[in-house]
Amino acid sequence: MFNNILTALPLIFSVNVIIAMVIGTTVGIMVGALPGLSATMGIAVLIPLTFTMEPLVALGMVAGIYNGAMYGGSIPAILLRIPGTPAGIATVFDGYPMAQKGQAPLALKISLVSSAIGSAVSAIALLALAPPLAAIALKFSPADYFWLALFGMTAIAVLLSSNPVKGLLSTCLGLVVGIVGIDAMTGAERFSFGNIELLSGINIIVLLTGLFAIPPAIDLAINSMTSQKGAKLDKVQEKVRWRSFIPVWIKSSILGVVVGIIPALGGNIAAVLAWNEQRRSDPDNDRYGKGEPKGVAAPECANNADTAATLIPALTLGIPGSAVAAVILGALLVHGLRPGPQLFRDDPEIVFGFMLSMLVTAILMFVIGRLGARAFVHVLKAPPALLAPMIISLAVVGIYSIHNSMFEVWLMLGFGLLGFGMERLGIPTAPAVLAVILGPMAEESLRRALLISGGSFDYLVQSWISWIIITMIAVTVLVPIWKRFKKQRTSRGSNGPSPQ
């Protein structure tokens, strides 16, 4: 392996490849920062332009777009409460409250450092652990996927809201939205109401933009009627105790790598799980969701640690673990490279060069992000009367550009009004978005597990992996109930009759 790395190093640091990585990283940050666009879309658009390039030049640009887009999604999430990519959902929880408190530069700095660390760890894992880690992904059965999806939905519903009932209500809404379209198992239409536009289901970006972009724009418009001031920026440079973030980065990086190697998951799930775990393990967990810096570090580190890890089963087994991994496999095939074990045997300098480019672009992302951070934060200086229509216009253009569909634009605006009403009632919107992602996966995995077992529910609890996840679900549900019971018992004791 070391010989292959040494062979690939001079190729990676050639002028053409470095220029390609710089361009790719810059474009990736811009793509991630624009709501409605994603790394998958950016790479898909790039591939036809790379036909005449050398394979490593093209793959270096692909690596830059991938890493850059995952960080770029945090910029509008922190500044405008609009996740630029689905993986930026969890960054909103604490990033936007920090911006509202005048800590936007600090939040962007934490996001950038955490993203760079997560991407670097992921690239190192890809280089060192690809074959053994890919074997773990093969151990997951459909039953394990079902419990994993259930755990993700339960955790976010219970932990994110002060009222778990409202969190579960939001999750149920997401499950209903997630079943719209054609049933993947039978081909039957579900809740499409004869509308062709709904046959392919409701695009997650439409829901995401509607629930997260439109409500704050409405709030800004309402506030602009009474105040014309823009959001405040911190005038004093805050000192960050980076040492305190080290345990967060370690936990989140490991979690992101593990989630990344499991097909069909992704950075959005890694980010939410990392945020949940950080909140659960912190004694002062009441601060999360209100502008806690570690609540920004954990999801950003995890969703970037997922990037190169997603490519482990893709490169070693030819199994794309996500949509973006599938597009990257397409880029390899375009340049005559066949994913799988033979790729490491026949073209080691290309595959190791590509893996090294994931590490180099993580460093470039930090450098380019630092240069652009000062420009990004000036968005907050715009007055609310100007910022509100800008956000709505950006959301409309972003959604229309996906499929050139006005139906999806109206759908997004409808979800925006729904999200505004949910916020007024104290119902969190994040569980609904996660349920749209995880609900179909849970349903398909459950039905597949029952088909394999001939309808026996015993198959769902046969694996040790399933039992570990079931235990995690039980802890997630029971711990808040126990804490509430203990708190009520303590309050009863303190309010009891005083001694004579």
Automatic annotation (TrEMBL):
Ranges for domain DUF112: 18-434
UniProt keywords, alphabetically: Membrane, Transmembrane, Transmembrane helix
Pfam families for this protein: TctA
Keyword Transmembrane: yes
Transmembrane segments: 12-37, 43-66, 78-96, 116-138, 145-162, 168-186, 198-218, 254-275, 314-338, 350-373, 385-403, 464-482
UniProt-listed InterPro entries: DUF112_TM
Name of the protein in its database record: C4-dicarboxylate ABC transporter permease
Classification of source organism: Bacteria, Pseudomonadati, Pseudomonadota, Gammaproteobacteria, Oceanospirillales
